[in-house]
Amino acid sequence: MSFLKDVTSFTGDLSALTCPSFMLNGVSLLEYSTYWGDHPQLLAAIAKPESPEERMIAVARWFISTLYGSYFAGCVGSTSKKPFNPILGEQFFCRWDDVDGSGDAHLVCEQVSHHPPISAFYIENPKAGVYLNGHFGQKSKFKGTSIQVIQPGRVTVRTTKNDESYVVTFPDLYIRSLLVGNPFIEVAGPTSIECSNGYVTEFEFLSKPWFGGKYHKFTGNIFHKDDPKNILYSIAGKWMAESTITNNVTKESELFFDATATPPAKYIVAPFQEQSEIESRRVWVKVAQAIQKQEYSLATTHKNEVENAQRALVKERNSKGEEWKQRMFYFVKDPVQENVNVKYKNKSKTGDVGAWVYNKSLHLQNES
C-alpha cells in the first residue's frame, strides 16, 4: 500500500519511482519489442499488393495485430504487471522462422538511452523485402484513478519492392483499476500511419464512457492526404477481438483482423549460455528467477545489485571523462515528422525530433 500512496501523491514521471518486486512481471521492457513481430506473415504481406491503397490496408492490419500481445494478452486471467526497466546498452535478439514461405524474420534491440529511457528495435524479413526501424519511451503520471502512459517514439516500415515508407505513431495507454480490482491496460487516443506515397490511416482508440459502453473499441479511416475528406475505407471494432473494414465506394464490409483467431508466432532466442552478459535475459536472470519463485525480498536484492552495478559504471565513465556510445543504432534528426506527431497527438513537442536507426538496416545496405 505504501507504493500506491507514493504513486497517487507523486507529481512527476512515475518511472522515477522504484516499483516493488511483487509488481514486476519478470521480463525486460526491451523484450516487449517482440510484439511487433507477433504475426510475421502480416508484416511480410505488406509488400505484396499491387495498389498503394491495398498496401496501406496491409500496414494498418499488421499494426492492429501487434496490439493484442502488447497491451491485452498479459492481462488475460491475471493482473497487468510492470516489466523491468532496461539498463543502458542492454540488448535483445530473436528470430521468427519461416512457416508459410514468406521468409525468416529477425529482431535486434538496444536500450539507447537511460535518461530518458528509450528502447530502439529493428525487424527485417529480407525475402519479403520488408523491414522496420522503431523506438519508444514511456512517460507516466497519475491521472484520476489511473496511470496515464504517454509513448514517445515511432516506427518506420519500409519495403524494398515499392520504395515506400510508412511512419506509425503510438497511442496513449491508461492503467485502469489500479486502486480496486485487477489492473488492466486501456488504449486511448489518436494515432496515425503516414505513407510516403500520400496515403494516410488515422486511428482513434476509444475510452470507455463512465456509464455504459465497452472497452477496447477503435475506429479508423484511410484516405489520401490530397483529399482528406474522401474516406476510402473505414475500420471499426475491438482491437483485442474482431474488427471489420468497409470499402466506402462499394459499401462492402469484410473481416479486418481477429486477434483471437490466430495465436502469435513463437520467437526463438539463442540458448542462455550463448547470450552475452548485456543481453536482457542474462542481465535480469537472478531477478526473474526469484520473482518466479515468489521470493520477492531476494528479487529486490538482485534488482538492486543490477542497478548498483550500473551506477558504478556511470561513475567510472564520468571519472574518466568517457561518453557512452550506442553499439547498434544511431540517431537521425527529423523535425518534419515531429510536427506530424504534434498534429495527430495534439500535444506539445516531446523533444523526439528524429528516429533511431539500426546501423545495418536494409535501406543502408541498398544505398552502399
From TrEMBL:
Family matches, as Pfam families: Oxysterol_BP (PF01237)
One GO CC annotation: membrane
Annotated PROSITE patterns: OSBP
InterPro entries, per the entry: OSBP_sf, Oxysterol-bd, Oxysterol-bd_CS
SUPFAM superfamilies tied to this protein: Oxysterol-binding protein-like (SSF144000)
An annotated Gene Ontology molecular function: oxysterol binding
Highest taxon of source: Eukaryota
Similarity field: Belongs to the OSBP family.
PANTHER family assigned: OXYSTEROL-BINDING PROTEIN HOMOLOG 4-RELATED, OXYSTEROL-BINDING PROTEIN-RELATED
Protein name (database record): Oxysterol-binding protein
Species whose genome carries this gene: Basidiobolus meristosporus CBS 931.73
High-level lineage: Eukaryota, Fungi, Fungi incertae sedis, Zoopagomycota, Entomophthoromycotina
